Amino acid sequence: MDKIGLLKKGILKHLYFNKQLSSADLSEKLSKSLPVVLKLLNELIRDGEVMELGYAPSTGGRRPMLYTLQKNVRYVLTVAMDQVFTKIGLMNMEHEFVKPVRRYDLRLADNPEALSGLEALIQDYIKINHIDGATIAGIGIGMPGFVDVEKGINYSFIPSGEHSIAEFLEERLNLPVYIDNDSSLVALSEYRFGAARKRKNVMVVNMSWGVGLGIIIKGELFRGNNGFAGEFSHIPIFTSNKLCSCGKTGCLETEASLLVLIEKAKEGIRNGKTTNLRHLSDTNPEEAYESIVSMALKGDKFCIEIISEIGYNIGRGLAILIHILNPELIILSGRGASAGKLWRAPIQQAINEHSIPRLAEHTEIEISTVGARDELLGAAALVMENFGKDRRKKKSKGTGIELI
Amino acid sequence: MDKIGLLKKGILKHLYFNKQLSSADLSEKLSKSLPVVLKLLNELIRDGEVMELGYAPSTGGRRPMLYTLQKNVRYVLTVAMDQVFTKIGLMNMEHEFVKPVRRYDLRLADNPEALSGLEALIQDYIKINHIDGATIAGIGIGMPGFVDVEKGINYSFIPSGEHSIAEFLEERLNLPVYIDNDSSLVALSEYRFGAARKRKNVMVVNMSWGVGLGIIIKGELFRGNNGFAGEFSHIPIFTSNKLCSCGKTGCLETEASLLVLIEKAKEGIRNGKTTNLRHLSDTNPEEAYESIVSMALKGDKFCIEIISEIGYNIGRGLAILIHILNPELIILSGRGASAGKLWRAPIQQAINEHSIPRLAEHTEIEISTVGARDELLGAAALVMENFGKDRRKKKSKGTGIELI
DNA sequence: AAGACTTTATTAAAATTTAACAAAAGTGTA
DNA sequence: TACACTTTTGTTAAATTTTAATAAAGTCTT
């Protein structure tokens, strides 16, 4: 794509994340001069992509014209995968679903056909909803596992050999495709639409069957050297000998995931603890978790207790994060955020006990309110994040050559 | 300073870190076009700051002219502080000392006069060595404690109230002053001159009386939100009840610093362990540490054992780092690096036991060879890192204003 | 050894930024 | 309330920078 095309996309990207901006705002965000920005804006208006919204109140001088996106010109196809289900939706430029989200069965574990299966689902969704490819900015896919975003490979699921999943789908679907780890996308949606907006250094904990971590550093998603950063679930901090799914012992996950919460609840019920909690489903952890939370929110002491235990353990992990990365904000997000402020006290307690006060007092703790929509929204953000970026990798040359 | 002045400084900065560069290299590093870079280079040559070095070998085309700095035109004043001593030196553009390094007594703990004391030392050094301020690019100071680089405040030592230490010294000395945490500077010098050159995501462990950590992320020193990132010493990962200097228990430092090594050695001697180690100084930990290392390097089994124990504990901490940040490289640096490869086996052992293999295998472990010069060198790098940067903070404006 | 391809340096053309100015509003003072 | 002064946006003109074109110097392939 040519240079000014990329710039126009850059404008659309910023308007996507900010709803309305003045030419001066865009000039600053794009590091381009006002004359250029205004020229491009007028072209975008002419093409029906952008519209004038009216004047903003003065901040002490002439009032700026505000610009916004035309709502129904471009869309993003979003995909959120977990171990058993794959959800697909279509969102407009105002972060709303314009076609109903569909939930497909697609098992990831030990499924050599996962990739072609995924392609078929997307094709199906496009076909059923009569989606015109020309209106699609791109496809964003969130998936569990070790994802190397740059190589486009998932080392845990969706085998694709040495080939890029993203490139494979791009060729088949003829649309830009971006993939990322689910926890990273939860973090991205908190950064763009949730409690982490405009913040620079934020840790987003994805409380779920494991404990994921999305890291925002200097206003960008940080993925580490191979895209594996944020493996919070498996930091070794316990001396109990519980075996973890990863083969080690002492992982945070063995004492602090929602699955552990369910285990504790079941054990309590077996041991005749005083609680209103009744039988919990063995096959549907989602349901079991929601029962525990709703009981806890109604004041059930046992449920509150076990949630506190989990929270305290999470807090121990967070204390380590605070020491190493000194973030301004930690957000508890993902499925587990529905327990809301029940987490706050035990987490804060653990942080107080295990951190240097000067550090802890500079880090806020927030519970996410964006919730379960997070991952599909994050996948959409992933697409728009890359909108207006040149995908071609520039070859790096060595410097400091020998003198002849 | 005007724009082209900053650009020229930018050229000098890159030549400082790279010795010799072609115009094409500089064009890429500065994101400026070749014609501009060549114009500026010619001006710098005319002013006697830069010289042509000759042609580099061809890489398949016309040979590029290489440029380098004139050696004795500009200097950097470097200061490295620890709890009791302050070292000051003067370095040229080839990272060599041009005046002897002087060691001054300056106690930091509970010293309300530390700041004026520091100023006096620098004044003294300038005076004694007849240094012409006009030739100095700036003053870089490394110091222990919680340092907020942006505010220029050290919250642990060198009380300056709410005022900036850097600005205070700048006014008094009439030279640009930059301060930073000692471990950050060790990391910076590894990044610029040591094993971390050209790497993007590197953790540099500063093995000393505590365990510091300097974090390089995306090719830049990462300091966290308040400059407190890298408090590796106090991550809570042990269940032993040893009280730490910070008031908590279980800190890495209580089981993994060089002071602990000395303690273990003394205890061993008291208990009559088989070792060639004799009496260790109670007042000079530096000397005690060096005795242990030299014995270990000669093959003393007991010394090797206790070094291994410390190494293993460090490794446990590193395993956590690897999970969270997925670095490409971890460097063991600082005072403790003199034990060299003795660290390697126990650290690797701990990492193998406590990390997911897929993660661990992507992270190299290196022992620093730069060694004790690190901190003064890092302070010089800090000055040049900021050379050619506009120091004025641009005021950030809010976006997304309401529509009228 | 000739022609195709690379890379750097110089120059000319195109594009962008900066600066200057005009327009529209707020602020302060008599 | 009128009028001068400051602030901020939008437009036009001048200056600068970048991109493209071209020349120069060298490597590589057949």
Automatic annotation (TrEMBL), chains A, B:
Output this protein's name: Putative NagC family transcriptional regulator
Sequence similarity? Belongs to the ROK (NagC/XylR) family.
- One matching Pfam family, short form? ROK
Superkingdom is Bacteria
PANTHER family from the entry?
BIFUNCTIONAL UDP-N-ACETYLGLUCOSAMINE 2-EPIMERASE_N-ACETYLMANNOSAMINE KINASE (PTHR18964:SF149), ROK (REPRESSOR, ORF, KINASE) FAMILY (PTHR18964)
